[in-house]
Amino acid sequence: MNFLVQRSDVGEFRRRYRWLVLVVITLFGVLIGRLAQLQLIDGDVHRAQARRNIVRERYLATTRGVIRDAHGRVLAQNRPSYTVYITPARIDLEKTWPKLVRLVGLDEAERRKIEQRIRKEKAEALAHASGKDRGRRTEQQIVLKNDVDRDAVAWLETHNPVGVDVSPTPVRYYPYGELGAHLLGYMREVDQEILSRLERRGYRAGDRIGAIGIERRWESYLRGQRGMRKMLYGLRGNMSRESLEELEARYLEEPRRIEPIPGRDISLTIDVELLAAAERAMRGHLAGAVVVVDVRTGR
Fold first, then answer.
1. 3-state secondary structure of 140
2. Residue 152's domain spans which residues?
3. In total, how many domains does the chain have?
4. What is the Cα–Cα distance from 19 to 24, expressed in whole angstroms?
5. Cβ pair 77, 175 in contact under 8 A
6. Neighbouring C-alpha atoms within 13 Å toward the C-beta of 223
7. At what angle do helices 96-104 and 150-159 cross, to 10 degrees?
8. 134 burial class (0-12, 13-18, 19+ CB within 10 angstroms)?
9. Separation in Å, CA 119 to CA 100, 122, 221
10. The domain spanning residue 130 has which CATH number?
11. Shared-domain flag, residues 157 and 46
């Protein structure tokens, strides 16, 4: 009788053991299948996502085309300047922001407006922290100040505060001042309405666009195309140049740099000296018109 009870217990143990082995094999099969999915099927996706966490793309400003008169005299050109960009999701509002406001000379109205936008962008980035557009939102930049003086640029490049970038950006310059302003036009910063229409053409917040006149009519001809360079995030100043170049060669995909394409120049048929003479002749009059004719050709 005891022998039969022992045989029954052994049989029950063996059945439980087989079930236990089956469960363990099933679990290992699921783990191996999941590992195969991560490594073989979704491997490229995860590698790209990991690379995006350390790779940043920075735009390189282009140079707008020059406008000349009939004799080659420059009517509109560019002068070098620097623009300060901030990344709202990364900037420190307690330490970095107050110093930055004083450095670039923001007035109280500008400070409040940009600070509200920073807080809004931070909240949106936090709300989408686990979403698909997390990388885009956390790295979205806004223009803080255009045409910053060189002392401020030197301080920013020396201290390299987190969430702040300095980019060389040419500024439009008119050597003859207001002369021919009605003809040449002027530049203005794109607003949200214009940006919603032109974002697909490569425009972004902070860009300037021709508002009226030649600047607007020939915008696509004068504008040029901005460039791009890839860089490793968080490594500047922390390692030697040789080590940095080695890491960039390893992690940065080609093309690592795209040079900007300058805008094309325009030559007009007007003579700036005749334009100046006409303006002097009309000075003091409320309205009038000037007709210039070449007596030799009738043109």
1. coil
2. 81-169
3. 3
4. 9
5. yes
6. 17
7. 160
8. middle
9. 16, 5, 38
10. 3.90.1310.10
11. no
Q: By three-state DSSP, how is residue 64 classified?
A: coil
CB 233 within 8 A of CB 54: yes
Q: Are residues 85 and 187 in the same domain?
A: no
Q: Which of 169, 202, 236 is the last residue of a domain?
A: 169
Can you tell me which residue has the tokens 């191996």? 32
pLDDT one digit per residue (tens) for the chain, 299 residues: 555 455 566 667 677 778 888 888 888 888 888 888 777 777 777 666 766 667 777 778 888 999 999 999 999 999 988 888 888 888 888 888 889 989 888 888 888 888 888 888 878 777 765 555 554 555 677 888 888 888 888 988 888 888 888 888 888 999 999 998 989 999 988 888 888 888 888 888 778 899 999 999 999 999 998 888 887 766 555 556 667 677 777 777 778 888 999 999 999 988 999 999 988 888 888 888 888 887 888 77
Q: Model confidence over 166-213: pLDDT tens digits? A: 888 888 999 999 998 989 999 988 888 888 888 888 888 778 899 999
Same domain, 176 and 237: yes
- The rounded distance, in Å, linking the Cα atoms of 101 and 52 is 30
User: Within this chain, do residues 130 and 233 fall inside the same structural domain, yes or no?
Assistant: no
CB 247 within 8 A of CB 86: no
- Relative to beta strand 227-232, strand 55-60 is antiparallel
End-of-domain residue from the set 169, 186, 212: 169
Q: Which residue has the tokens 């794109």?
A: 190
Do 146 and 111 sit in the same domain of this protein? yes
Exposure string of 42-66, with b = 16+ CB inside 10 Å and e = fewer, is eeeeeeeeeeeeebbeebebbbbbb
